[in-house]
Design a protein that fits this description.
By secondary structure, the chain is an alpha+beta fold. The chain contains nine helices and nine strands. The chain has a three-stranded antiparallel β-sheet.
Length: 247
């Protein structure tokens, strides 16, 4: 039987990203190497490396990377707003191309039904991917003005929560420790879990202030990195999606 639908996994090369970002390709590759180090620390799949040849240099090979949309967003988080816009527009073009699969005309009724089922499953998968990417995009937009980490209140706003709700979510005792971000110490102060600090998702420093009794005091100050805000937005969206499925 002929193949009814041809699906292509869309990727963007590091060379195209360099062109869109007005950067030298070697600098983009350096940024991807740094990104891969973070992926390795977090136990995630690294960006795939490949090679290409340039017509002016014969058979000499040069390295390049092929990035998924999610990996591209991770890479450009720290880039300028105009760069992110150009990247987003290019991904919109790629997604439009992906929305027009090559379909062979079915030769019988059964084949037509199978083609319809496959097409609907592909649409559902695409919609699921969009739902997973939307919180990340929202989080990136919310913190695009920032050059560093964000506090608890700002992070809560970025992921669509009130501050108290966000703190309760980060410290939820019903979750395993590995899934939490913060805890309260004996004084009630919020602290970051060490494994989240090691993952590069949060930071913690001691903040000095004058107490009500006039004495100098110190307290932990938790802040969330850009990667941390993005990761939390993804987790929150996934939890909400599961809740909707259970209804």
């Amino acid at each position: 039987m002929s193949t009814l639908i041809q699906e292509n996994l869309k990727t963007m090369s590091s060379r195209e990203i360099a062109k869109l970002c007005d950067k030298e390709h070697r600098n983009v590759c350096r940024d991807i190497d740094t990104l891969n180090e973070s992926y390795e620390q977090m136990g995630m799949l690294k960006v795939e490396q490949g090679y290409y040849t340039h017509p002016n240099t014969g058979s000499q090979q040069y390295r390049q990377f092929l990035l998924s949309k999610e990996q591209t967003i991770d890479l450009i988080t720290g880039y300028r707003a105009d760069i992110r816009i150009r990247i987003n527009r290019r991904w919109a073009e790629l997604e439009q191309q992906a929305a027009q699969p090559v379909v062979a005309l079915p030769q019988d009724y059964l084949s037509a039904l199978k083609a319809l089922v496959i097409s609907e499953e592909a649409k559902e998968h695409a919609n699921a991917q969009i739902q997973l990417l939307q919180p990340k995009a929202a989080a990136l937009d919310a913190i695009s003005h920032s050059t560093g980490s964000t506090g608890i209140r700002e992070t809560a706003k970025a992921v669509g929560m009130g501050q108290n709700e966000f703190v309760a979510w980060c410290t939820n005792p019903d979750k395993p420790v590995s899934a939490r971000f913060m805890y309260r110490d004996h004084s009630g102060a919020l602290n970051a879990y060490s494994h989240r600090i090691d993952q590069g998702l949060v930071t913690q420093k001691l903040s000095c202030f004058v107490g009500g009794d006039g004495r100098d005091r110190t307290a932990p100050k938790v802040r969330f990195t850009r990667s941390g805000v993005t990761r939390i937005a993804e987790m929150v969206q996934q939890e909400r999606a599961r809740e909707l499925e259970a209804v």
